Structures are given as structure tokens and as C-alpha cells.
Amino acid sequence: MRRNWAARLRSVILDGLRAVVLENERLRVTVVPGKGGDVVEFLHKPTDTDFVWLSPQGLRDPAHHLQGAADDVAQFVDHYEGGWQEVFPNGGAPCEYRGARLAQHGEVAGLPWDCEITADSEEEVAVRLSVRTRRLPYLVEKTFRLRAGTAALETEGRVTNESDVELHAMWGQHIVYGRPFLRPGARIRLPDGVTVIPHDTAINPLGRRVKAGGPWTWPVVPADGGGETDLSVVPERGAPSDIVYLTGFAEGWYEIAGEVGLRVEWDAEVLPYLWMWQEVGASAGYPWWGRAYTVGLEPFAGMPTDGLERAVANGTALTLGPRETRTLTMRVEVLA
Predict the structure, then answer these.
(1) Residue 326: which residues within 8 A CB-CB, separation 6 or more?
(2) What does the pLDDT average to over 119-138?
(3) pLDDT (tens digit, 9 = 90+) per residue, 142-196?
(4) Would the pLDDT of 67 be above 70?
(5) Residue 318's domain is classified under what CATH number?
(6) Which long-range contacts (CB under 8 A, 24 or more apart) does 164-167 make?
(7) Is 49 a member of any domain?
(8) pTM exceeds 0.85
């Protein structure tokens, strides 16, 4: 029987794509198996706060995009609706790995996933998503679980090397925040002892927030052009775009809060880096056109955002032996 109380599930069509809604008394979470298993809604019902950033272009079905010049960046960016993506086995820029050409954040974020219900009771609901990559021999699985009465979403991820050879991968949780939740002055809190590694070069020709070099100590770091910048404070609209990599997590967690907050916990032994991406209106060209105000706080295995080939070369990529499975647990909880 379809419930409208306690923990419950709904199947919906969202902008032409199949989606599933996990809901209880406090949260509503919408997942799109038809496009990468993306989380496109993380709504705290008591305060009517949706934490995810929704891009101006909205949700688009990649299968319907037939026009425009083909390139390995547009495959992800032209269909990027914001929210939360699973990134595997390539993080960041297109690259080539052992003869396989991998697109921006490829492969699983652009593929349709299978979906099955694994729990459906008043006490808890859960769905399991799964997909096989096309160019590398991986099976990727992810279970979303919501228990009655809580303001926390739990996930359990698994990646399996289905070949008889050792392989590498970058594995990331591309979680981005936006308005109305994200506002100038919102605070980001991390464990003690975290260090900041700036990206090699500026991602925007207008400059960057953090001075190149480092590593620096979180949160107050040297600013590009002199002085200091406090990375724990979300900047005003128009501040320079930037990306840095945070590491040294004894425990994997962060909190981001304004009037209401969110705590994200993950296994830092599996994903030892946190990518911090800031696009707050400074980029006037493709693909943002000055319309983006978002901060991404993205747990990752591998860095920088130059693709798997670079992560293998610098020793930060995830290694999976023949037939090996790696698992990842996460918990995302509203602080209100």
C-alpha cells in the first residue's frame, strides 16, 4: 500500500527522466537513476530548505542532446543540473587511461542506472542503484537509505573491478550547495589539522582566491595578490573562482551552515581528499555566463582536477586489484 506517512517512497517522472523520492517526516530526497543517480533535491521540510544548488540550465536528459560540437567536457557540463553526482572512474578534466579516452567526470555521471527497492516499511526505505561503466570494466553500486524520524540520509557505495588486471580510478562525491541555503557569510567547519593544497593554476583568467604554492593550513591562507583569505567563510558574489584540495583528515567530516546547516560524514581512508570548488559569479564565459553562485565540498579519492592519468602519476588514484571491491559509507544530516 502506498503510504503518505513515516518513511515512504514514490516513483516520479522529472523533466522526462525517471526519479525516485525518499521521504519521511523531516526530509525529502529526490534521486534520478535515469541520469547518473544524481541527487537533485535534499529538502529539510521543517525549514523548507533545499541544500543543493540547481543550475540555471536545469535537468536535461543526455539522450536528447544531439546538437552542438562534440567534446569531452560538454558531455558532463551541458547536462549538469547541479545537485550531487557520483564521479567515477575519472575526476575532472578529460584524459586517456591505458587506451581508454575518459570524458570530464566520466563515466557514471552520464549513464542511466538500474534501480531496485531494498527496503520499504514505515521504519525505513532504501533503493539500490547499479551501473556498469562502458570503457573500463567496473561495476558501481549505491544504496540510499532514509529512516523514519531522522534528518539524515545514509549511503553505501561499492565499486568492483570486474577484470583480472589491476586498475586505477578516481572516486568522488560531487556535492554542491546553492541559494537560498548558500549565502555570503555562511561558515564551513572542518576537523583540526587539515591542510590546503592550491590548484596548480587559476581556473579563471580574472584571478584566484588562494595564492599558488603551499600547502597552507586551514582556514586562513595567503591570498593571491597579497594579504589573507579565510576559506571557512563563503564569499560575496563576484569573488574570484577557485579550487583547492583539502587533506589530512583524521576523520572524514565537514559542516556548512548559515541559518540551518548540514553535516557530511564519510570514510576518509577511502576518500582522503576534499575538493573545495568555488564558482560565485566571476566566470563570465562558458558554461556559467556569470549566473553561478555555488560552492562544492566534494570528498574524493585522487587529485587534482586534471583527470585520472595525472592522479595515477602522482600516486593519489585509487587502486583496485583483480576482482577487488571497495566500499564507502556516508551520512548526510541536517543541523537545525
Answers:
(1) 158, 159, 171, 270, 318, 320
(2) 97
(3) 999 999 999 999 999 999 999 999 999 999 999 999 999 999 999 999 999 999 9
(4) no
(5) 2.70.98.10
(6) 164/322, 164/323, 165/322, 166/319, 166/320, 166/321, 166/322, 167/89, 167/136, 167/137, 167/138, 167/319, 167/320
(7) yes
(8) yes
Give the integer Cα–Cα distance in Å for 155 and 265: 10
Encode pLDDT of 241-285 as tens digits.
999 999 999 999 999 999 999 999 999 999 999 999 999 999 999
- How is residue 194 written as a grid cell? 587539515
Q: Cell 557569510, residue? A: 185
In a domain, 218, yes or no: yes
Does any domain span residue 2? no
CB burial of 9-41 (b: ≥16 within 10 Å; e: otherwise) equals beeeebeebebbbbbbebbbbbbbbbbbbbbbb
How do residues 200-209 score in pLDDT, each as one tens digit? 988 888 789 9
CA distance 60 to 219: 36
Domain range for 102 is 8-335
Examine residue 209 and state whether it is found in any structural domain, yes or no: yes
Of 304, 288, 300, the closest CA to residue 212 belongs to: 304
> How many structural domains is the chain composed of?
1
Cα distance between residue 312 and residue 299, in whole Å: 18
